[in-house]
Specification:
The complex is a heterodimer. By secondary structure, chain A is mainly alpha-helical. Chain A contains 11 helices and no strands. Chain A has helices at residues 12-42, 48-52, 57-92, 97-112, 115-128, 135-138, 140-166, 170-178, 183-213, 225-235, 244-275. Chain A is flat and about 75 Å long. Helices cover 84% and strands 0% of the residues of chain B. In chain B, helix 3 (45-59) crosses helix 5, helix 7 packs antiparallel against helix 10 (182-211) and helix 9 (168-177) packs antiparallel against helix 10. The chains are: A mainly alpha, B mainly alpha. Chains A and B meet through helix 1, helix 5, helix 9, helix 10 and helix 11 of A and helix 3, helix 4, helix 5, helix 6 and helix 7 of B.
Chain lengths: 321, 215
């Protein structure tokens, strides 16, 4: 138990005190939850009729369609953002000044602008030029969401990959050049595979962000899960009221379940990777940092933990050099 | 340029709205996050569990969903006397508190155990250890992640604009609804956010430099 800096192993007095805190704390937490449940029940939100709506096939179909369209956007945006992210990372590491400058500018710009602003601007743009855009114009909300998510997440993924590339020991690159490999070979055979491997937990954590951000489709009225749920609650009336609370609770559980499945995959890969004796420890399964320039230092706050670094760190902290 | 000059009041109100909302929810997130981090490192199991559940729940929920919760579930529990601004504040503050909690917690756990052991063996009390040994070191490690959390918060506050709170995204929406070309509006609104985020990262970099010690 004495694994914390904050307190020693508890003695008899402390153990009694802790037990009292345990009881008081549990009562407080339970009281809070109880209060919320009581108030909701008081307003009739736990009446059987309210929850009966989920037994109707129509309601279930709507929620299912919502989940499917959320997953469709997520899948397309995830794949596209990984591809574009890899390209941007390579471009940013390029030796050619103009290529590097363009990639850097693109990444910094779209990483700093709220995703919603980008998505909304794209949506309005697509709606304005609806007729000239062909298949994009026909489902402008879908494409605005997909392209917005792709651009933003590609920029973040590019930075993650770059941090991973920078964390590969220099000696390996020197050895590769000494063997006569070209730059493209060094990149594809040496740097990218190791960067992906060490950054996989962070990459997946960013995919969780992508999944969460698909809910921005709600605002541009794309029929993803949240929008479908809102419409469902709007169009249903039980006991003279719209069943917002039950619908929000159910949809919330679905979202949390989907995201937790992905996050636990990231944590699992991180734990698994730490067992491997490659000398490159995987990054923590946490979202990458957002501050401009924070990722610049190779193996900085985001980078894989240095061997012999502080033990028991759970987040992407660590002294920036 | 014309869009900006002709609608300067809207842009100004939007900018102030974004700054106010960001500052207020950053404050709320700091308070809640530090309390939750306290729970997570406490020796009391139910509080630890509550902290962990809090972080897991809020980190895995889309912010838009939290806005819906603030709009429909919170009034059902606490009565419907809240204005949109307060609801947006609650959604943003609670969401961000989970990230603050994790940053603070990992900041505390980067302080080597030996430091506290040495302090105790010198006869320092718990609060002396906390104030003079653990917190100063933890603060320094927490600052870089906090800066990025608040930058993310600034960007997330855009969602509030979609829920009829006056801020920059609301301005973008309003003006593009009025039929102005989206590209210039986009540029000006984006610039507004850039000003806020660069201010935050600058402030934190200053803070970091002031707190820096040779280690």
């Amino acid at each position: 138990m004495s694994s914390s800096v904050l307190y020693d192993a508890p003695g008899p007095n402390a153990r009694v005190r802790n037990r009292i805190y345990t009881v008081v704390g549990s009562l407080l937490v339970l009281g809070l939850i109880g209060f919320a449940v009581f108030r909701l029940a008081d307003r009739g939100y736990f009446a059987p009729e309210m929850w009966d709506i989920f037994n109707y096939a129509g309601v279930r179909t709507k929620i299912r369609d919502g989940i499917l369209s959320t997953l469709l956007v997520f899948a397309v945006a995830a794949v596209l953002s990984l591809i574009l992210g890899a390209l941007l990372a390579v471009a940013r590491l390029s030796d050619h000044r103009p290529v590097k400058a363009v990639a850097t500018g693109f990444i910094e710009l779209f990483r700093a602008i709220p995703l919603l602003i980008t998505i909304y601007a794209l949506w309005v743009l697509f709606l304005t030029y609806k007729d000239d855009l062909g298949f994009i114009g026909e489902s402008s909300a879908y494409w605005a969401l997909v392209i917005g998510l792709t651009v933003y997440n590609a920029c973040v993924q590019a930075e993650v990959l770059r941090a991973g590339v920078n964390a590969v020991p220099k000696g390996q690159v020197e050895a590769a050049y000494a063997l006569g490999l070209r730059k493209s070979q060094v990149m594809t055979m040496l740097l990218i595979p190791q960067a992906v491997r060490s950054m996989l937990p962070t990459i997946i954590s960013q995919l969780v962000v992508t999944l969460k951000d698909t809910s921005l489709g709600y605002i541009i009225t794309y029929a993803e899960l949240l929008f479908a749920a809102r419409m469902l609650a709007n169009n249903t009336i039980v006991n003279d009221e719209n069943p917002y609370v039950p619908v929000v609770i159910v949809v919330g559980i679905i979202y949390v379940a989907m995201c937790m499945a992905l996050s636990s995959l990231a944590t699992w890969i991180e734990k698994r990777g730490r067992r491997a004796k490659t000398g490159i420890t995987p990054a923590a399964a946490a979202e990458p940092l957002e501050a401009p320039g924070v990722l610049d230092a190779g193996g900085g706050p985001l980078g894989p933990r240095v061997e012999g670094g502080p033990e028991g760190t759970d987040g992407p902290v660590g002294k920036k050099n | 340029m014309n869009v900006l000059l002709d609608h300067l009041p809207e842009f100004r109100d939007g900018f102030i709205g974004t700054v106010l909302l960001t500052a207020a929810s950053a404050l709320l997130a700091m308070v809640l996050g530090i309390v939750m981090a306290g729970f997570r490192v406490s020796p009391v199991p139910p509080l630890r569990f509550f902290g962990a559940a809090w972080v897991t729940l809020f980190r895995n929920t889309p912010l838009t969903l939290l806005f819906l919760v603030a709009w429909f579930v919170v009034p059902a529990v606490f009565g419907s006397g809240m204005n949109p601004w307060t609801k947006a504040l609650l959604a943003l503050g609670f969401y961000t508190s989970a990230f603050v909690c994790e940053a603070v917690r990992s900041g505390v756990s980067t302080v080597p155990l030996g430091q506290a052991e040495a302090a105790r063996s010198l006869g320092m009390t718990f609060f002396q250890t906390l104030r003079m040994i653990v917190l100063p070191q933890a603060t320094r490690t927490v600052i870089p992640p906090l800066s990025s959390i608040f930058i993310a918060l600034t960007k997330n506050s855009a969602i509030a604009g979609a829920f009829s709170v006056t801020e920059l995204f609301g301005v973008q929406k309003l003006l593009s609804d009025k039929g102005f070309a989206i590209a210039p509006i986009f540029l000006w609104v984006a610039l507004g956010y850039l000003v806020v985020t660069f201010t935050i990262s600058g402030l934190f970099r200053l803070l970091e430099r002031r707190l820096e010690v040779a280690r």
